[in-house]
Amino acid sequence: MTPVPDDDPASLVGRIAALDEQGALDTVRARAEAGDDPLAIIEDCQLGMRYVGEHYQSGRYFISGLIMAGEIFRETMEILEPCLAEAPRRSEEGTVLLCTVQGDIHDIGKSIVDILLRSYGFTVHDLGVDIPAAEVARQALALAPDIVGLSGLLSAAAEGMKATVAELRRVAPDLGRPVPVIIGGGQINEQAREWTGADLWTNDAARGVRLIREAVAAGRR
Ligand code: B12
């Protein structure tokens, strides 16, 4: 078995890795009530999920383990959302078109990005999951976003990302300007950014929000 990184099965990371739903949610509530940074709590959950994924890959957990982990994260976000919404609201920062690309139905990370962007004053149009490239381009033409955010966790999602970036580039003349694209997900790295033709990449929602704010501000100058 992969050891829990901090060797503490009673930690939030350890509890999620062990699929201890009650223990994990009690820890989230206690940390939120103690005023812990919600982003730090999310980071621990993300690490715990990575361990669940490894256990799935090694055959220790079945698909039900992934489903259970998804449920724990969903409930965690229900607890944390009010804390995130309390962040000071800024003026209108811009419009973001967001989705999980075709072939991929993972949406937990995307939903975190959505919540964070809204709390920073962005208008977010979340198209959902498994969205074909042509549909993203159609919505971009209709909504004229400042930036497009594509999420994907499967290795195969890179195909969908590449196709979507190409489609957005193809309709750029009709948009009147090139729309920057940021890709995100646990497996995403600089190599994936280069291969898909996207402008930016991240595997961390908080860093993603920072990159989006910078890109939108630069586009408006
Ligand atoms: C929960 C889970 C599921 C749930 C998803 C529930 C849901 N509603 O999303 C369910 C059970 C449905 C599922 C299904 C499958 N899964 Co799954 N799943 C996971 C698991 C355990 C956690 C994913 C997660 O939510 N992580 C937590 C979030 C917060 O992290 P995140 O997504 O990376 O997002 C963060 C950042 O990346 C960033 N971010 C994400 N998107 C974006 C977008 C933008 C624009 C920005 C700025 C930032 C950003 O912000 C987030 C917060 O920091 C992962 C393991 C792992 N290592 O991630 C496997 C994993 C992704 N799944 C995997 C697999 C294989 C599958 C299935 C194919 C299994 C099967 N045989 O059916 C199916 C896929 C079906 C499909 N077509 O998509 C593999 C993928 C392997 C690969 N390299 O392709 C993984 C890695 C597990 C593994 N190690 O084998 N899965």
Account of the protein in words:
With 221 residues, this protein is of the alpha/beta class. It has 2 domains: 12-85, Methionine synthase domain (Methyltransferase, Methionine Synthase (B12-binding Domains), Chain A, domain 1, Orthogonal Bundle), CATH 1.10.1240.10; 94-220, Cobalamin-binding domain (Rossmann fold, 3-Layer(aba) Sandwich). Helices cover 57% and strands 11% of the residues. It is built from 10 helices and 5 strands. It has helices spanning 12-17, 21-33, 38-57, 63-85, 108-119, 133-143, 157-170, 172-175, 190-196, 205-220, and strands at residues 94-100, 122-126, 147-151, 181-184, 200-202. A 5-stranded parallel beta sheet has the order 2-1-3-4-5, sandwiched between helices. Helix 9 (190-196) links the parallel strand 4 and strand 5 (200-202). The radius of gyration is 18 Å and the shape is globular. It starts with 11 loop residues before the first helix and ends with a helix. The mean pLDDT is 90. The protein binds cobalamin (B12).
Task: Please outline what is shown here.
The protein has 221 residues and is α/β, with parallel strands linked by helices. The chain has helices at 12-17, 21-33, 38-57, 63-85, 108-119, 133-143, 157-170, 172-175, 190-196, 205-220; strands spanning 94-100, 122-126, 147-151, 181-184, 200-202.
